[in-house]
Amino acid sequence: MKLTFWGATRQVTGSMYLLELDDEYKILIDCGTNMERDIDYSQPVTNKAFFPFEASQVNLVLLTHAHIDHSGNIPMLYREGYEGQVLCTSPTAELAGLLLQDAANLHLKKIKQAEGDSKKKKKKMDRLLVKGDLYLQKDVEDSMSNFVTIQFNHRFRVSDTAWVTFIPAGHLLGAAHIILEVKEGDKTKKICFSGDIGRKNYPLHIDPSDEIPEVDYLLCETTYGARLHEDKISPEDALGDVIKRTCIDMPGRLIIPAFSVGRTQALLYTLNKLYSERGFQPIKVFSDSPLAYASTKVYQKNLKQLNKEAQDFQSENDTLFDFENLQYIQSEKSSKAISNYGEPCIIISASGMISGGRVEQHIAANINNAYCTILLVGYASEGTLGWRLMNGQKTLRIKDVEHTVLANVEKIDVFSGHGDQNDLINFVKKQSKEKLKKVFLIHGEVDSMEAFKEVLEKDGYSGIEIPEAGQIFEL
């Protein structure tokens, strides 16, 4: 069989790997949006296929988790002729449906903004058409009708010669490592696709499983391959300290850019614990993301898929997320009105990297406010507004307006959903150095991959590859 690396190669986003078995059965593992895709907008609009392979020839899709950089191009796969199923866990299917619907709504909004006869509008429309991934609501509905859910740790036969098992990865509600067993003649080969590896003791999420079987080939993400988490205190202590200094000791405003799925729920749960267990006065909290509101309901519904601490908290308090002075914001009009709220408050809004979304308007409206703190709580890709703030940039250009950064900028990493270098090493160490034939490093920046490769080699692992896009390996 052969494995082709089509995404998250020498970069973080766009996870997509095509496994072709000897009997020509083709399995696509993840089908994510490439947020770092280089697009030549000078090229004319063509009917060129979106994928570098024939979508109609794929037999099955396996999805590690719902985040858009792993799931975001599934509707495009169906538009280009794919007719098979998508296998994943039940929470992943629910969250992926919400994320894909949100993406489709954003596509529709961009199309409407580009409609018109002016040169500027036509240019904008041409750029959208060249980019290509403009699936809409109907495409999402067609895709979701083909999702089939599989329980964790259940070995499931997908073809005459292949079996799949989803193992808890801890990164997100429903997130999984995927184990594929493929029979070739009288031999069985095992491959593990890590997905995104979570960290232990994260708010809400179960810990990554320690029950990873020994495999022949391992694909390991490297988002934090060169880094260790800095904060050694609890999420309550870390967040509580910032709130006290920003909103209690002085009448300030705290803005937290956070992904709508996963990160926002961890923050709301931690705020609930601060108010219910530590006597914090209930400061006004605005959760400004319709997607976060819908995702929070999925988390509440899937209580049994969360960790024991969260289940115990639910038993004692009847809710994980609702608390006094929490307000979910739905409309854009209400979102803009938050700027007129004069009392101390906390605004949690997407996107987490400050790369689009409502949080941009909150940053723009408050970046000159010395009584405002912008709290960065997760990974931000190079070049995003979040990355620029994290690296101390003194001015920011937001929607063609240059702003001087007068607000306080702080960062904590206790809410990062990715395991750090030590967690990744422990994940790899579950494998036998003698049995493991190859380790493929994916889903990370090049420096991170190279640093992690060096660590593994010093520890005695060999056959470590850093694939390029389109590179094929015979397994």
Q: What does this protein structure show overall?
A:
The protein is of the alpha/beta class. The protein has two domains: 2-226 and 419-474, 4-Layer Sandwich (Metallo-beta-lactamase, Chain A), CATH 3.60.15; 235-411, 3-Layer(aba) Sandwich (Rossmann fold), CATH 3.40.50. It has 14 helices and 22 strands. It has a seven-stranded mixed β-sheet. A seven-stranded mixed β-sheet has the order 7-8-9-10-11-20-21, with helices on one face. Strands 14-13-15-12-16-19 form a six-stranded parallel β-sheet, with helices on both faces. A hairpin with an 8-residue loop joins strand 1 and strand 2 (16-20). Helix 3 packs antiparallel against helix 8 (290-301) and helix 6 packs across helix 7 (263-277). The protein is globular. The mean pLDDT is 93. InterPro entries: Beta_Casp (IPR022712), MBL (IPR050698), Metallo-B-lactamas (IPR001279), RibonucZ/Hydroxyglut_hydro (IPR036866), RMMBL (IPR011108).
What keywords describe this structure?
475 residues, 2 domains, alpha/beta, 7-stranded mixed β-sheet, single chain, 22 strands, hydrolase activity, 21% strand, Rossmann fold
According to CATH, the homologous superfamily of the largest domain is: Ribonuclease Z/Hydroxyacylglutathione hydrolase-like
Q: Tell the overall outline.
A: globular
User: Reading side by side through the largest sheet, how are the strands ordered?
Assistant: 6-5-4-3-2-1-22
Q: Supply Rg.
A: 22 Å
Note poorly predicted spans. Answer: none
CATH architecture of the largest domain: 4-Layer Sandwich
Domain Beta-Casp: 264-389
Keywords: Hydrolase
Domain Metallo-beta-lactamase: 13-237
Pfam families: Beta-Casp (PF10996), Lactamase_B_6 (PF16661), RMMBL (PF07521)
